[in-house]
Amino acid sequence: MQRASADSVVVLDFETTGLSPQYGDRAIEIGAVLLENGVIVDRFQRLMNPGFRISPFIESYTGITNEMLKVEPPCEEVMAGFSDFIAGHNIVAHNASFDRRFLDFELKRARRAYEGDCCCSLLLSRRIYQDAPNHKLQTLVNHAGIPKVGSFHRALADAEMTAHLWLSMIDRIRQHYGVQAIFFDQLTELSKIDKLYAHRYLTDLANG
DNA sequence: TGCCAGGCCCTCTTTAGGGCCTT
């Protein structure tokens, strides 16, 4: 099997009604970009109707209103289409455990499943940008000098900025450590090791 | 309408507690 390059992935972001699908929360927007060799070559963005009114807090937080959602298709219909978009790709998300819970929950309701691997840009940023004031997406975008795209807390904009953050971390590894080719599973492993050993891990990668 | 979770990670730790991150 051919090893997956780190810069050919789908970067995704959910907007949801809350924090936990186990307590009744649902997805209301999915945004994703397909990176191929470090370039965004495709985009996916859909609003979806969760079947109940969303709270004023979520309306204010995301800018997505009940008025906007009432004409949108149900989650199951949107997620069936998204399942086709991510098929065959590894995925990246900022605080991926959150997005993965909603991805698995909504795909299960749509009678679909995702079998690929998942890497967390938040965990990775704690190893790569140890000098950042914090590791919120908005802070890291400013810290890394990434151009702002659209509005924070909208799915496609957050996915696109997360994709540029992902690429900036790959560039930083290449420039600082001289790593020529870096693979998805290596970044996944880096995101999970004790961050004190991140420097040693990257030095070992550079030395083969 | 308002509430909720969970994994990572640090430290005044490991027989625990609490902040960070996501909506």
TrEMBL record:
Q: Which Pfam families match?
A: RNase_T (PF00929)
Q: Which GO-annotated molecular functions does the record name?
A: 3'-5' exonuclease activity; DNA binding; DNA-directed DNA polymerase activity
A GO biological process held by the record: DNA replication proofreading
Q: Where is the Exonuclease domain?
A: 8-175
Taxonomic source organism: Chlorobaculum parvum (strain DSM 263 / NCIMB 8327)
Q: Does the keyword Transferase apply?
A: yes
Instruction: Describe its partners and assembly state.
Output: DNA polymerase III contains a core (composed of alpha, epsilon and theta chains) that associates with a tau subunit. This core dimerizes to form the POLIII' complex. PolIII' associates with the gamma complex (composed of gamma, delta, delta', psi and chi chains) and with the beta chain to form the complete DNA polymerase III complex.
What name does UniProt use for this protein? DNA polymerase III, epsilon subunit
Role noted for this protein: DNA polymerase III is a complex, multichain enzyme responsible for most of the replicative synthesis in bacteria. The epsilon subunit contain the editing function and is a proofreading 3'-5' exonuclease.
Annotated signal sequence is: none
